[in-house]
Amino acid sequence: MPIEGMHPNPPPTSLQTKNETDMSNQTNIIDPSTFTPTGVTIAADATQEQWADIHRTILLCRSTSRLWLKQSREFAATKWGADYVAEVEIQMELSLGLPQPEPKPDINPADKSKGIVTIEGITQQFALWSRKMAPQIATWDVVKLKRALELLEPMEKQAQEIRARLNA
User: Fold this and answer.
1) pTM (2 decimals)?
2) Which helix or strand (DSSP H or E) is residue 36 part of?
3) Predicted confidence band at 104 (pLDDT cuts at 50, 70, 90)?
4) Euclidean distance between the first and the last CA atom of the chain, given in angstroms as a whole number
């Protein structure tokens, strides 16, 4: 039995997601009987397909929410100014109990390369690479291990220098 507001689909043959075209054909991506401000309702007898539809919607909202926020901020900033947007958004975040982001020190170059390479970006890329490659690293031959070590050593050296300064 399909969930109200969701499009029935044949069961996926593997853990696959709908492409953007499929998702953009939906006129209302959020089923109000399933999603509320306080949680998600999943029937105890939900099928794998029904759960996958609900979970796909959650992931779609997560991936699209930044775009929604950007568009909403741009609209309000154009109409009422950026200061208004910042003030109202802080008030809304506080009333919703959202954690305030801690200010992060700028540890990237001040030139245009900042838009291309940041330490945060390097960390994210490394985390992704590490997660995908961890199972394979144990099977690497000496040549691959030496190459990986060669590429990682500059980062390790920089980390050692920073640790030494922190302990000084």
Assistant:
1) 0.42
2) strand 35-36
3) low
4) 65
